[in-house]
Write a structure and sequence with these properties.
The complex is a heterodimer. By secondary structure, chain A is α+β, with helices and mostly antiparallel strands. Chain A has a single domain, classed as Glutaredoxin (3-Layer(aba) Sandwich), CATH 3.40.30. Helices cover about 40% and strands about 30% of the residues of chain A. Chain B is about 75% helix and about 0% strand. Chain B is flat, with a radius of gyration of 22 Å. Classes of the chains: A alpha+beta, B mainly alpha.
Chain lengths: ~80, ~350
């Protein structure tokens, strides 16, 4: 099971990213643990500058903008 | 990372073909603006000589024209953004001295993708990578103020001279404000946790941890299209309301009505008042520029109007609240004060020169 974290301070794009990953995971039947990280210090600790960022199993895989759906599916 | 991207990289068939098709459609639409507006007004049985006819003519012509220009420029910027990630800008600015650094930061602010919700992470990211505070501010002032939406609208409604002027003056305000803030040495007015990061005691993961792969051209074009959806999708209601208000002013407010309040011979305080009115207004360039155009047509002076516009875009109350997370009140006050003074100077110089 993958742990996916979405880094973002609560803008529309961050929420969209979260929803996108959720729906992609459900469509594929993959179980994931989704987490939204809004604490700035924590976000910074990943070295991400442009939100939303996506972290999978502790590794930053995406930053800056809503990822493409195909990209999300490839992570799952 | 690479193995992942290979599977996600579904090449769209003939991206260049679609692009050429889109461009052709754009040119065709742009060429038929005037006949379309005339036909619409005539179709409503109105003469362009009446107030209503004049207002509607203005509305039917300006709305699609500005939307078309905006779409094209936003697309181009979406593609440009794929070349200039914030990480790259940061690397370019890291360790730069005041002066050169400020000029670079303000210029990069135009082309680096920026959204106000990312302002804080960006701010800290820059500082932690050794970008000086004054240089960071130049970026932070320029990025929202000199943006593609403002430039596209100015170009569409006033022509390229005014757009260029706004570009140059916006850059100047960003560069000088950043220089002043840098010279003041305000580092200890950063919030404590930010200073810790800056000092390296709580160093974030090195930026090299995440290196985005270079996108293909098909992906860059997709990014441009996405950018259109995002920006034009968000901005069009403001634009339509703005143009409708502008059209009303255009058709109904008597000529030279604004001359006494905002004109060239208006009292000296008209510029500061314009700036002060702009601060609490939270709208984007799309909402304010059409109104500005109508005001100009009624005798308002360009300098006063530009100052008002810059104030609305660059000095917004919500942005101050976001920045409060990383800056102590004193630094926010200095930031607002320095930028406001810069904008005032722009306003006065314009009124005096033109």
């Amino acid at each position: 099971m993958k742990t996916i974290k979405v880094l973002g301070t609560g803008c529309a794009n961050c929420r969209n990213t979260l929803k996108l990953i959720e729906s992609a995971a459900r469509a594929k039947g993959v179980e994931v643990v989704l987490e939204k990280i809004e604490d700035l210090k924590l976000i910074m600790s990943y070295g991400v500058m442009s939100t939303p960022g996506v972290v999978i199993d502790g590794k930053v895989v995406h930053a800056g903008g809503v990822p493409a759906r195909a990209k999300v599916e490839s992570w799952l | 990372m690479n193995t992942l991207t290979d599977t996600t990289n579904i090449p769209r068939r003939a991206p260049w073909g679609w692009l050429a098709l889109g461009l052709a459609a754009w040119v065709l639409a742009y060429a038929s603006l005037i006949p379309l507006a005339d036909a619409l007004v005539a179709g409503l049985g109105l003469s362009p000589q009446t107030h209503l006819g004049e207002a509607l003519q203005f509305f039917f012509y300006d709305t699609p024209k500005v939307l078309l220009l905006l779409t094209l420029i936003v697309f181009v910027m979406g593609v440009v953004h794929t070349f200039v990630a914030p990480e790259r800008t940061r690397a370019l600015l890291s360790g730069k001295r005041l002066g050169v650094g400020n000029v670079m930061a303000a210029t990069l602010g135009i082309v680096t993708p920026f959204c106000s919700c990312s302002a804080v992470p960006l701010f800290i990211g820059f500082l932690s990578a050794g970008v000086p505070l004054g240089v960071t501010f130049s970026f932070l002032i320029s990025a929202p103020m000199v943006n593609e939406v403002a430039l596209a609208l100015l170009f569409g409604m006033f022509g390229w001279q005014v757009a260029e002027l706004y570009l140059g003056l916006g850059l100047a305000v960003a560069i000088v404000s950043g220089l002043v803030i840098g010279k003041l040495g305000m580092e200890h007015y950063l919030e404590d946790w930010v200073r810790e990061i800056q000092a390296g005691s709580a160093a974030p993961a090195s930026p090299a941890d995440y290196a985005a792969e270079a996108p293909s051209w098909a992906e860059r074009i997709d990014a441009g299209v996405d950018h259109i959806k995002e920006i034009v999708g968000k901005v069009w209601p403001y634009l339509i309301v703005g143009i409708a208000l502008g059209a009303a002013i255009h058709g109904y407010v008597p000529q030279d009505f604004m001359a006494s309040i905002m004109g060239k011979n208006a009292p000296w305080w008209s510029v500061p008042v314009a700036v002060a009115i702009g601060v609490p207004m939270y709208t984007n360039a799309a909402g304010v520029i059409p109104i500005v155009q109508a005001l100009l047509g009624k005798g308002a002076a360009l300098g006063t109007v530009l100052a008002f516009m810059m104030s609305v875009i660059a000095l917004s109350a919500p942005e101050m609240i976001i920045l409060r997370k990383v800056l102590k009140p004193r630094l926010i006050a200095v930031f607002a004060g320095v930028v406001a003074v810069g904008i005032l100077i722009v306003g006065y110089v314009f009124n005096a020169v033109l």
